Amino acid sequence: MSDDRFEARDWLEAELMDELDEDYELELEDAELSLKIREIYDARLRQKIDPMPRREYFTNLLRLQAELIKMHHWVEQTGAKVLVIFEGRDSAGKGGAIKRITQRLNPRSCRVVALPKPSEREMSQWYFQRFVPHLPAGGEIVLFDRSWYNRSGVERVMGFASDRQVEEFFRDVPEFERMLVRSGITLIKYWLSITDDEQQLRFLMRIHDPMKQWKLSPMDLQSRVRWERYTKAKEDMFDRTSIPEAPWHIVEGNDKKRARLNLIDHFLKQIPYKDVPNEEITLPDREFNPEYDRQTLPDELYVPSIY
Fold first, then answer.
1. Any idea what the Cα angle at residue 9 is, between residues 20 and 70, rounded to 5°?
2. Which domains are present in the chain?
3. Among residues 109, 151, 107, which one has the least CA distance to residue 129?
4. Running along the chain, 307 residues long, what does each successive block of 10 average in pLDDT?
């Protein structure tokens, strides 16, 4: 083997390792980062879960992400419109699942929508109005990290919506979603489900992990106090908004890795995608001007090489 082929192989291996390092970095959010967190991570709460080996997890995740790329390419080529709603209790793993879905997809046609609390102007509008501009156009996948179901969950339990507004929501949302489906949108709704003990564990880990404390808000802490009210609200939501055109799909979420794999596998099966032929890509030759002299730029323009 020539020196050039050795160098090319070494470069390729280094690039692949960089890619795997980024994947590993993404998974570090699940690691226990201090002795205090290790104490909290009580084996008693995990005794019913057989941890998935990291190699098995990554093997399946990469396989499913490859299928997501095929599916996304089909969506772009056919002009399909896909809307996926992620709901669940605080710390249920919605954000983590969304990250693994979007990780290798084109962000120009696969968007994540996570709206802040409504402004005063938005509060005076038709309730669904602020969500409509974010709906997918042809060739797009849109993932809602929480959605209009805030009204049947946090707004209802925390008293931000009146009984009349909640009842009006339940009356309107089935027809609103049927309208979306009739317009050609594929609407998929996921509820990530975790147990009482698991949420307590995850909240405690966030409290004692400086890298995760930003994820905890006063509203999140109040959701712990109102666990049973949220349970009742969730049951009402399933009963009144799981319609044939857009049923709810519950994902068991205590084991984050299995939850992500199961969700992605199920998501792929909801889309009737097929392999779409890709145009062959060739790298064109760079134009070369023998008279061009690249200028040396001043040192102050460069970011200091500290590392």
1. 50
2. 8-274 (3.40.50.300)
3. 151
4. 58 55 56 56 56 89 96 98 96 95 97 96 97 98 98 95 97 98 98 91 78 72 86 97 98 95 98 91 88 86 93
